[in-house]
Write a structure and sequence with these properties.
The chain is mostly helical. Among the domains are: 72 residues; 213 residues, no CATH class. The protein is 82% helix and 6% strand. The protein has 9 helices and 6 strands. Strands 1, 2, 3, 4, 5 and 6 form a 6-stranded antiparallel β-sheet that branches. A hairpin with a 5-residue loop joins strand 1 and strand 2. It is rod-shaped and about 205 Å long. Keywords: Coiled coil.
Length: 581
C-alpha cells in the first residue's frame, strides 16, 4: 500500500544520523488519500539518508510495514495531485456555472411559458368573443332566412289570392257578359217578369260575394315590412361597426408598421452596441492576458533574483568560511578524537559516499528546475505569438509549470542547505582525521579556497540587469493595470447600456407582438363582417323587393276590387231604376 511519509533524522553523538519515516497519509484503492492517525513512524532504509529531514517521500509498504520498493521523492507526485485538484476545482466551478446558466435558462423558459399561457388565455377569450359575435350574426342570418321563408309563404298566399281573384274576375266577366245579354234581351222585350228580376238579383249578389277582401293580407304584408325594417336597422348597425373597426384596424396597422420599423432600427442599434461591447471585451481580455504574461515574467524574474541571491550568499559564505563555525558546534570533536582511527576513517568514507549521492540527487533536482525554467520561458514566448484559441491552453500549461517550478524550488531550498551542512560536517571530520593521522596541513578549507570574486561580480551584474528588467516590467504592469481599469469601466458601462437596450428592445418587441395579435384579431372581425354582411344585405334587399312587388300587386287587386264593387253598385242601381224602385 502506498504511503506519504516525512523523512525524520536523529543525529548521534558521533555525528552519524538515523533516519525514520513518519507516515502521514495512505492512498486508497479509489486513488483518494486518507490521513494516518497518530504519530506512526517506521525505520527508514539506507537510501533515506539521501533526503534531508522534512522531505516528503512515497513509500510502498506491505502488510508487515516493510518497504517493498525504493523510496521516491513526493514533490512531483504532490505537484500532480495539486494540479489535478486545481483542475477538479476549475471543472467543478465550470459545472456550477453551467448549472447556474441552466437554472437561469429554465427560469427564463418558465417565465416565457407563463407569458405564453397568459397570451393563449387572452386569445381564447378573444376567440370566444369572436365566436359569440359570429353566433349573433348567425342568429340574425337565421332570422333573415325565417323572414324570407315568411315572405315566401306570404307570396304563395298572395299567389293563391291572385288566382282566386283571377278566377272571380273571369267569373265576373262571364256574369257581366250574361248580364249584358240579359239587359239586351230586357231592352228588346221591354219588360221583365219576377223570375228574371230574381235571377238578375241573384247574379248581382253572387258577383258581390266573389270580391275578395284584402285587409288581412295587407296586415300580414305590413308585419313583414316591419320585420324587414328591423333587420335592416340591425344590419345598418353592423355596417357602422364594420366601418369603425375597419378604420381602427387601419390606424392600428399603421401604428404596428411604425413600431415594427422602430424595432428594426433599435435591433440594428443593439447589434452595433453588442459588436462594440464584444470588441471592448476582446480588448480587455487581450490586456488581461498581456498583464498575466507580464506578471508571470515578473514572477519568474523575482524567482531568478531570489535564486541568484541565494547562490550569491552561499558562494559568499563558502568563500569566507562562515558556515564552518555554525556546523562545528554540531559535532562532538572530543568524541571523534577518542574513537579508533579505523572507525573514524569508515565514518569519513560513509560521509563522503552519502555526500556524493546527495550531490547527484540535488544536481538532478537542479537540472529539473532549470528545465522547468526553460519550459516556462518557451511557453511565455509561445503565448506572445499564439492565437486566441491556442493561448488558453498555453496559459493553462504555463500556470501548471509555474506551480511546479515554485513547489520544486521550495523543495530544493532545504536540500541546498542540507548539502552545505553535509559538506561542512565532512570537512570537520576530515580535519579531525588529518590531525590524528599527523598531516600538518589540516586547514581543509584553506587548501580548497577558490577566488570567487569574479563570479560574485558577474552575479552582481546579472542581478542588477534582472532588477532593471523587473523594474521595467513592473512599470509596464502598472500601465497595463491602469489601462485594464479604464477598459473595465468602459466594458461595465457598455454592458449596462447594452442590457438596458436589450431589455427595452424586448419590451418593445413584446408590445409589438401584442399589437400584432390585437390587429390580427381586429382584421379578423373586419373580414368576418365583410364576408357575412353583403350576402345578408343582398338577401334582405331581395326580400324587400319581393314585398314591394307584392304590395304593388296587392294595390292592383284592391283597385280591381274597388272597380268590381263600383260595377256591382251601378248594376244594382240600374236594376232598381229599371224596376222602378
Amino acid at each position: 500500500m502506498l504511503y506519504l511519509a516525512e523523512v525524520q533524522k536523529k543525529t548521534s553523538f558521533i555525528g552519524g544520523s538515523k533516519s525514520e519515516l513518519k507516515l502521514l497519509a495512505c492512498q486508497r484503492t479509489d486513488q483518494s488519500w486518507t490521513a494516518v492517525p497518530g504519530e506512526e513512524a517506521i525505520p527508514a532504509p539506507d537510501e533515506a539518508n539521501n533526503y534531508n529531514s522534512g522531505v516528503l517521500v512515497l513509500a510502498d509498504l506491505g502488510t508487515n510495514r516493510q518497504i517493498q520498493r525504493p523510496l521516491t521523492e513526493a514533490s512531483r507526485q504532490l505537484v500532480n495531485i495539486l494540479q489535478n485538484f486545481s483542475r477538479q476545482l476549475e471543472k467543478s466551478k465550470k459545472e456550477e456555472e453551467e448549472i447556474d446558466q441552466w437554472k437561469q435558462s429554465l427560469t427564463y423558459q418558465s417565465q416565457e411559458l407563463n407569458r405564453r399561457e397568459m397570451e393563449m388565455e387572452a386569445r381564447l377569450e378573444q376567440l370566444q368573443e369572436i365566436e359569440e359575435e359570429f353566433e349573433r350574426l348567425e342568429r340574425e342570418r337565421q332570422e333573415i332566412n325565417n323572414s324570407r321563408s315568411e315572405s315566401n309563404k306570404l307570396k304563395q298566399e298572395l299567389d293563391r289570392n291572385r288566382q282566386q281573384l283571377d278566377a272571380a274576375w273571369q267569373q265576373l266577366q262571364i256574369q257581366q257578359q250574361r248580364l249584358d245579354e240579359r239587359v239586351a234581351e230586357v231592352e228588346q222585350s221591354a219588360g221583365l217578369d219576377a223570375q228574371q228580376v230574381s235571377l238578375i238579383q241573384e247574379l248581382i249578389n253572387r258577383i258581390a260575394s266573389a270580391i275578395a277582401p284584402t285587409d288581412a293580407l295587407r296586415e300580414q304584408l305590413h308585419l313583414a315590412f316591419e320585420l324587414v325594417n328591423n333587420q335592416q336597422a340591425t344590419l345598418d348597425y353592423n355596417w357602422q361597426q364594420l366601418q369603425e373597426q375597419q378604420a381602427a384596424a387601419q390606424q392600428m396597422q399603421a401604428e404596428v408598421d411604425h413600431a415594427h420599423q422602430d424595432v428594426q432600427n433599435r435591433s440594428i442599434e443593439s447589434q452595433q452596441g453588442q459588436a462594440s461591447l464584444e470588441e471592448a471585451r476582446t480588448n480587455l481580455q487581450v490586456q488581461q492576458q498581456t498583464l498575466e504574461v507580464k506578471q508571470a515574467s515578473a514572477n519568474l524574474l523575482r524567482l531568478q533574483l531570489q535564486t541568484q541571491e541565494e547562490i550569491y550568499q552561499q558562494i559568499s559564505r563558502l568563500a569566507t568560511g562562515q558556515d564552518e563555525g555554525k556546523v562545528t558546534q554540531k559535532i562532538d570533536v572530543e568524541a571523534l578524537e577518542k574513537i579508533p582511527l579505523g572507525e573514524l576513517e569508515g565514518i569519513v568514507q560513509n560521509l563522503q559516499n552519502e555526500l556524493q549521492k546527495f550531490v547527484r540527487f540535488v544536481n538532478d533536482q537542479q537540472e529539473e528546475l532549470n528545465e522547468k525554467r526553460q519550459t516556462i520561458a518557451e511557453l511565455q514566448s509561445q503565448i506572445a505569438s499564439s492565437s486566441q484559441h491556442d493561448r488558453i491552453a498555453l496559459e493553462s500549461d504555463l500556470a501548471s509549470e509555474q506551480d511546479g517550478y515554485q513547489l520544486l524550488d521550495q523543495t530544493l531550498k532545504p536540500q541546498r542547505t542540507s548539502l552545505a551542512e553535509r559538506e561542512d560536517i565532512l570537512k570537520q571530520h576530515i580535519r579531525v582525521l588529518q590531525q590524528r593521522q599527523g598531516i600538518s596541513n589540516v586547514n581543509v578549507s584553506d587548501n580548497q579556497k577558490i577566488d570567487v570574486e569574479p563570479l560574485l561580480t558577474q552575479l552582481t551584474a546579472q542581478r542588477q540587469q534582472l532588477e532593471e528588467q523587473l523594474q521595467e516590467l513592473e512599470s509596464q504592469i502598472a500601465q497595463i493595470t491602469t489601462s485594464i481599469e479604464q477598459a473595465q469601466g468602459i466594458v461595465t458601462d457598455s454592458t449596462s447600456q447594452q442590457e438596458a437596450r436589450q431589455n427595452e428592445l424586448q419590451a418593445i418587441q413584446q408590445n409589438l407582438q401584442n399589437q400584432w395579435v390585437a390587429v390580427a384579431e381586429l382584421w379578423g372581425k373586419v373580414n368576418l363582417y365583410q364576408e357575412s354582411l353583403p350576402p345578408t344585405q343582398d338577401n334582405l334587399n331581395w326580400i324587400r323587393q319581393k314585398l314591394e312587388a307584392i304590395e304593388s300587386y296587392l294595390n292592383h287587386i284592391q283597385e280591381t276590387s274597388d272597380y268590381q264593387v263600383h260595377t256591382v253598385t251601378e248594376m244594382q242601381q240600374l236594376l232598381n231604376n229599371f224596376m222602378g224602385i
